[in-house]
């Protein structure tokens, strides 16, 4: 026992760091917290591009075969959401980067949910739908719970989680970001405001 105390005194900081590393490695929420700290710096964020700089993709092409269901079961056909700014976020409850960015997605939703020109499609890709619903309930998130009702076009999602896509009122992709980002920054809000001012 005495040897253990001596060893801990000599190696205390290494022991603490090892325990912290194990907690972060094993606990999804701890891992998400660490990622959130990195994301809050803004270095992982991409910006909404000007219409002229993007490859113009029509609503019809972007949404070909893209059908969604909401929590109550009704079908949502995104092609019917024309003349709106659409924020699409593909996520899963088991994905630490998704968990890390979700508080910022919720803040963005809270800010614009009552704006008639903006639509949120937060698309859950858990194999078990109950896992996604449970995660939102446990964390107190109120974003729409939406699942795909068919294939997701590759132009929107190619397998990386999280993936976020922002479409302007013409249906053009203005942001396509794979990976963690912070959507609660004033700079991002300003970009959304610019999109909302644009005419369809």
3D architecture notes:
- The chain has 7 helices and 7 strands; from the N terminus they run ααααβββαβαβββα.
- It has 200 residues and is an alpha+beta fold.
- About 4% of the residues have low confidence.
Low-confidence stretches: 52-60
Number of helices: 7
N-to-C order of helices and strands:
HHHHEEEHEHEEEH
Spatial order of strands in the largest sheet: 4-3-6-7
Mean pLDDT: 81
> What is the percent of helical residues?
40-55%
Distance between the termini: 74 Å
Rg is: 20 Å
Number of individual domains = 1
Features:
Glutaredoxin; alpha+beta; 7 helices; four-stranded mixed sheet; 200 residues
Brief summary of the model shown:
The chain is 40% helix and 16% strand. The chain has 200 residues and is an alpha+beta fold. Helix 2 crosses helix 3 and helix 3 crosses helix 5.
Helices and strands in order, then pairings?
Elements: H1 2-10, H2 12-26, H3 28-39, H4 59-62, E1 68-70, E2 75-76, E3 85-91, H5 96-112, E4 118-124, H6 129-139, E5 146-148, E6 163-167, E7 173-178, H7 186-197
Parallel strand pairs: 3-4
Antiparallel strand pairs: 1-2, 1-5, 3-6, 6-7
Helix pairs in contact: 2-3, 3-5
């Amino acid at each position: 026992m005495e040897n253990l105390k001596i060893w801990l005194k000599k190696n205390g900081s290494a022991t603490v760091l090892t325990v912290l590393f194990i907690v972060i490695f094993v606990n999804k929420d701890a891992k998400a917290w660490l990622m959130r700290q990195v994301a809050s710096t803004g270095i992982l964020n991409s910006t909404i591009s000007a219409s002229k700089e993007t490859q113009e993709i029509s609503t019809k092409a972007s949404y070909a075969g893209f059908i969604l269901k909401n929590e109550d079961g009704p079908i949502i056909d995104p092609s019917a959401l024309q003349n709106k700014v659409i924020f699409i976020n593909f996520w899963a409850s088991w994905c630490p980067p998704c968990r890390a960015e979700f508080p910022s997605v919720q803040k963005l939703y809270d800010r614009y949910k009552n704006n008639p020109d903006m639509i949120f499609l937060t698309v859950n890709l858990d194999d078990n739908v109950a896992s996604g619903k449970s995660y939102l309930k446990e964390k107190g998130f109120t974003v729409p719970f939406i699942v795909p009702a068919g294939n997701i076009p590759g132009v929107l999602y190619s397998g990386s989680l999280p993936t976020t896509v922002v479409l302007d009122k013409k249906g053009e992709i203005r942001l396509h970001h794979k990976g963690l980002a912070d959507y609660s920054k004033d700079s991002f809000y300003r970009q959304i405001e610019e999109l909302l001012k644009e005419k369809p």
